[in-house]
Design a protein that fits this description.
About 15% of the residues lie in helices and about 30% in strands. It contains three helices and twelve strands; from the N terminus they run αββββββββββββαα. The protein has helices spanning about 5-10, 210-215, 225-250; strands at about 15, 45, 50-55, 60-70, 75-80, 90-95, 105-110, 115, 120-130, 145-155, 165-175, 185. Mean pLDDT is about 80; it is low at about 1-20.
Length: about 260
């Protein structure tokens, strides 16, 4: 089976994907953060490039907040290190919310990975959509403002609840990827431009004798589809039915 890229190229167009972004790296001289909030209101503020390392327990919901401006693309990477001797597999998730607490979709990254009991760590990631200058009120497009990251476990064996873990988190920023960075760049149109036909600037003249030639009766009789024709036919049928009915129901004369 031919790939989608081959089909698009054969049709005269090629869809060029956006370049893959590298993993975020800490900013030189950034002050590490060693705490996390437990709710939206107590989320610990961080900035892009500021490393986070906290000690927590399995089952905790950890919250951080960071600012975002228009034209930026935020990348969140997190690593959770487990203790030895876990009893079963677990599923972890990293969620991002905007200032209205609307959950934002991730375009890349392992947002909800599952690891078995033998794993010593799990890596999570989320790349957000580009922050817009403005958006329609009904849309959920990311807008400039504060965003909240929540790291939590959503499925695990009950004996593992409360075990100590180490969490490393980092928020990276891509300054500007261009107008079509989210969906790649279209090198050529998928449908070639077609040439329009001839446009008539004037209405062609109408021959007044053409209608007379098409009507052999010269227009004296009404059109068979006219309501007056069907009204007359209905009147004649009603009269015939009345005469027949009178003849049938009339009593014979006695001599």
């Amino acid at each position: 089976m031919r790939s989608l890229a081959a089909l698009l190229t054969a049709g005269g167009a090629a869809l060029l994907p956006a370049p893959a972004a590298a993993a975020p790296t800490p900013s030189p001289g950034a002050t590490p953060v060693n705490r996390a909030g437990t709710s939206f209101l107590s989320a610990t503020p961080i900035t892009a490039g500021q490393p986070v390392r906290v000690d927590a327990s399995i089952g905790d919901h950890l919250y951080w907040s960071f600012p975002a401006t228009a034209g930026q693309v935020q990348e969140i990477s997190a690593t959770v290190t487990f203790p030895k001797g876990r009893s079963g597999a677990s599923t972890w998730t990293v969620d991002v919310f905007d200032g209205l607490r609307r959950r934002q979709a991730c375009t890349a990254g392992a947002q909800t990975p599952t690891v078995d009991a033998a794993a010593t760590s799990v890596a999570l990631g989320c790349t957000l959509r580009e922050v817009r200058q403005w958006a329609e009120p009904w849309s959920a497009d990311p807008l400039p403002g504060s965003y909240v990251v929540r790291l939590s476990v959503i499925d695990l064996p009950e004996p593992d609840l409360g075990a100590p873990i180490d969490v490393d988190l980092l928020v990276g920023t891509i300054a500007d990827r261009g107008a079509s960075a989210d969906d790649g760049e279209l090198a050529a149109p998928l449908v070639p431009n077609t040439e329009a036909g001839t446009v008539l600037n004037a209405v062609p003249p109408v021959d007044p004798d053409a209608d007379d030639e098409s009507d052999p009766l010269g227009g004296w009789l009404p059109d068979l589809g006219s309501r007056w024709v069907w009204t007359g036919i209905g009147g004649v049928l009603a009269a015939v039915a009345g005469v027949v009915g009178f003849a049938v129901t009339r009593r014979p004369r006695r001599r």
